[in-house]
From TrEMBL:
Organism for this UniProt entry: Bombycilla garrulus (Bohemian waxwing)
Sorted UniProt keywords: Apoptosis, Cytoplasm, Membrane, Mitochondrion, Mitochondrion outer membrane
Transmembrane segments: none
GO terms classed as biological process: apoptotic mitochondrial changes; positive regulation of extrinsic apoptotic signaling pathway; positive regulation of intrinsic apoptotic signaling pathway; positive regulation of release of cytochrome c from mitochondria
Major localization class: cytoplasm
Protein name (Swiss-Prot/TrEMBL): BH3-interacting domain death agonist
One Pfam family this sequence matches: BID
Annotated Gene Ontology cellular component terms: cytosol; mitochondrial outer membrane
Top-level taxon of the source organism: Eukaryota
Subcellular location: Cytoplasm; Mitochondrion outer membrane
Length: 138
């Protein structure tokens, strides 16, 4: 039931003594987030407007299902991952690209925030869940 604030902090209260554990987890998550943001800034320059505009058009289409949108996001991320030279793990590249694409789409058409966020979350749960869990627990 915690609510994510725009600065990455959680609102609400911790229950059952979770405060100490949560503080440690939050520190780890902040470090990972900072690293991903830095990588995202580098990738941001490489993503062409055409890719973003194509995805915007798909998200604006009312007849596409959630699964179809997730597949489109997955294809765009895969194509970009092949075009961007990187010595990083493929999963990390895909994670950062998905987040950068989400940001660019929402910056282009802010009214798509909920639809794009839900699609990106669905994509990450389907394609990158194990990687994310391993990254946070490492």
């Amino acid at each position: 039931d915690d609510e994510l604030q725009t600065d990455g902090n959680r609102s609400g209260h911790f229950q059952n003594g979770e405060l100490a554990l949560a503080a440690t987890s939050e520190d780890v998550i902040r470090v990972i987030a900072a690293q991903l943001a830095e990588i995202g800034d580098q990738f941001d320059k490489e993503i062409q407007g055409r890719v973003v505009n194509d995805l915007v058009q798909h998200f604006l289409s009312e007849h596409l299902s959630r699964e179809e949108l997730t597949q489109r996001m997955s294809r765009a991320v895969s194509e970009l991952a092949r075009c961007i030279p990187s010595d990083m793990e493929q999963e990390r590249v895909q994670l950062v690209l998905a987040m950068v694409l989400t940001k660019k789409i929402v910056n282009t058409v802010p009214s798509l925030l909920q639809r794009v966020f839900n699609t990106t979350l669905n994509y990450m749960n389907q394609q990158l869940h194990t990687y994310i869990v391993e990254m946070v627990s490492a």
